[in-house]
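COMPLEX REQUEST
Ligand: HQG
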Amino acid sequence: MDEQRLTRVSKYLSRHLRHRPEGIGILLDEHGWVAVPVLLRAAARHGFPIDRAELETVVTANDKQRFALDRDADRIRAQQGHSVPVDLGLPPREPPDFLFHGTVGRFLPAIRREGLRPMRRHAVHLSTDRDTALRVGARRGRPVVLTIRSGEMHRDGHVFRLSGNGVWLVTAVPPRYVAGGRS
Ligand code: HQG
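STATUS: Structure written out below.
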């Protein structure tokens, strides 16, 4: 499976497992899962045939481990990043003292004013290292990395969860925990 096909299938799955299941007529269960044969049939019916082997390759080879199969490989879901309501069932976890968020300069005035908001997703995404945050920010322009005082947030009662692919999730970050911008 070449790189281009891998990316195309990954984008297609992200779209329908995170944002628009109804676009191909599938229903995600409350935890975000859909049966693999149901997904494959729906994709084929909507002009994007994917075979089972390709699906498994996309799950295992995905650069960010965006998708997970359940234990018996019967069902698939996106590990995070949803805009449709799903309960990923992730337990609360104590975060490290500092986490990082990648964004761009044009959002800084609003972020300073109101903190980080999840926008169209369910949660604000934070990473454990600056490099990942830089890459996330760079999707939108010249990246700025914000340092988040996550340890302090946690001590103040904010609930953090860690997705299956290593992204820290929190409902929002009030402005006082945003330590500083750095290009
Ligand atoms: C910004 C990709 C104004 C926030 C990435 C971000 C990540 C505000 C944008 C994952 C704001 C939301 C998530 C406020 C936050 N005012 N702007 N108060 N609060 N923002 O895409 O973190 O490839 O929903 O800084 O790699 O950029 O899809 O979030 O710029 O892991 O798997 O609003 O998506 O992963 O954008 O990216 P997003 P994100 P995938």
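REMARKS: The helical segments are 3-19, 36-45, 52-61, 108-114, 130-138, 150-155. Residues 14, 64, 66, 81, 103, 107, 110-111, 114, 116-117, 119-121, 125, 136, 140, 167 surround HQG (CB under 6 Å).
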